[in-house]
Amino acid sequence: MRGMKKILPYLLFLFYVLVRYYLLDLLSLPSYSSLLFEVLFALTCIIIYWEGIDFINFFFDKRLFFIYFLLGGICLATARFNQWSIPFDFQEPSLFFHMVLLGPVVEELLFRLGFWKLIENMPLRFKYDHIILTSLFFSASHFYAYYLVPDNFKTFVLFQTLYTLFIGVMWALDFYQRRSYTTLVALHMSFNLGFFLTHFWSYLA
Predict the structure, then answer these.
(1) Total tally of structural domains belonging to the chain
(2) Whole-number mean pLDDT of the chain?
(3) Which residue range forms the structural domain that includes residue 171?
């Protein structure tokens, strides 16, 4: 039983990679199936490793929220300035819901709770491993699109991989200090909202 407890985090991580990046593609399931799987996987990890998780406390720092809002806008403006094609249809009515509302909730649930708790419970660890690894996973999940999009979008995907790595580290550090899931979701929403609104501002300007 003790041996199983030690290897369970590794087995869960392997299960996630195999299902998310192989089985779901192999079965050609609807696009929402990957989102549903990520939610269920994160909730499973949270249930197994519940101790120390806080869904209640919320820390509001208007300056921090504004900074992330600006960063999101800067990332979109950088792509526009360099004339990189962006793989988002801003005319699609559901994009706001997926990018600004649903995406942050699911991604923070998966990376800053699910994977975080897995790493915390792995026997073989190193200093700040949960900060480093969750940030790498977060960035890599965005890089995966590189293999799915047409060539004209690939430059933006590489750019997105870099800025999500930076942002991932910042959010992981915030979670390390405060342990507040709801605060991270709000910060993530602020960043994506800045990204989303800058598209329309650039056209109005």
Answers:
(1) 1
(2) 90
(3) 2-204
